[in-house]
Design brief:
- The structure holds two protein chains of two kinds.
- In chain A, β4 and β5 form a beta hairpin.
- Chain A is built from no helices and ten strands.
- Chain A is mainly beta.
- Chain A is 0% helix and 45% strand.
- Chain B is an all-beta fold.
- In chain B, 0% of the residues lie in helices and 51% in strands.
- The chains are: A mainly beta, B mainly beta.
- At the A-B interface, β4, β5 and β8 of A face β6 and β11 of B.
Chain lengths: 118, 117
Amino acid sequence: GAGVSQSPSNKVTEKGKDVELRCDPISGHTALYWYRQSLGQGLEFLIYFQGNSAPDKSGLPSDRFSAERTGGSVSTLTIQRTQQEDSAVYLCASSLALLTGVTNYGYTFGSGTRLTVV
Amino acid sequence: AQTVTQSQPEMSVQEAETVTLSCTYDTSESDYYLFWYKQPPSRQMILVIRQEAYKQQNATENRFSVNFQKAAKSFSLKISDSQLGDAAMYFCAYRANYGGSQGNLIFGKGTKLSVKP
């Protein structure tokens, strides 16, 4: 697609429910990143994919968080048994490759999913 | 670990005036990139300007320029002739540049810029 698409745009869920957040990167972008932006905070790096592989999952806040990417394209961030502290905006970004984020292609960010846990 | 600090949670500027947003960072690396991103209410992060650490010359993009002081680990953003459309959150970000790097950005907490007509 022309840009990075994230869905849903907004999600309200009850505490304890599972949620899935979707990111559809720019076609051909092999690197994909997930960030979390809590109220009044900067962006916290969660996980990255190179192709379908996520070599380092240590940035995920807890074992309730998981992410996958299939076909080198769409990625899903899943939060199980949601808690109120999970409320945040979840942003996805993609780039042509891991170390080309600073070329003319840069990183392209989606508009995020605002998750509210009530 | 690398960190990015933005000490100004909020700033305000009069339309057509100049404003400078501050950013300091901490790293032991010598090769890296620095960025300023703008985040309007739409939430999408928009690249304003970037600086390669190996370049001494300060980057400039139209009304936006940076003052990069590598020894002091300082990277401020100057916005000249401020416009109403410049009102947004501004984030300073760092990215290491070495073979084992994950390529992810490390962000400061942001500065909310208001522009007064």
